[in-house]
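Q: Convert this sequence to structure tokens.
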Amino acid sequence: MVEITKKYKIGRRRFGLINWVGAWTLYQKETLRFLNVWAQTLFSPLISSLLFLLVLSLAIGTERSDVLGVPFVTFLAPGLISMQVIQQSFSHSSSSFMIGKIQGNIVDLLYAPLSAAEVTIAVSLAAVTRSVMIAVISIITFMLLIEIQITNYLTLIAFTFLSSFILGNVGIIAGLWSEKFDNMATVTNFVIVPLSFLSGTFYTIDKLPSFLQTISEFNPFFYMIDGFRYSFIGKADGSITIGLIYLSILSLVTWLVTYLLYKKGYKIKS
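A:
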């Protein structure tokens, strides 16, 4: 008994610096959580984007002049896909913690031999996976329906990853903070949705009043959608370089916040 106690001390990690098996298992669990209802999680965003495209193209698409040198529908489509990437990444990670807290099975995560870094990265990367799958399905579908094509794969990969990773982290923060679904709805309705609609999804920001243009220049959603759109039409409403730097810094900052909050046990430990 003494030998066993000496060999296996409570609180000592026996998996090396990183518990790769545990982190991979959590990532698989989070991925299967949305794949088990794939019709809802993967195709529902596509249908929403198609409806937006249909309504707006029928309402004003034929009457509006070219935007950034391309037809309005071509300008609009990448923005709609990017908006779904952003929203679905947030939805995945936030619901993971929110449901875990309400159902009480968050304790399974807390007692698992996983560090705060391993948990937050695994959940955020699962959110990224969901967003990437939605993006791929949406891009293929839109290519079959309208004239759009990818012109820059590197920026597409970079902005898709950064956008979904940032919103995956923000979703974890919102999930930790929220104590009920009403709180989550508050974040969605008063933060995520307004930032999405002020990001230049449906227009170029030079059409906005000057004070809203200034707000948009600090809005990370603007750079997410602008960079994603640049990958298709080869033109941007803002600076791609500034967008990459801004989003890279923001991805590190948001992850650090999620790491510190989870490590502290913010609203999940008594």
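The two ends are 32 Å apart (CA to CA).
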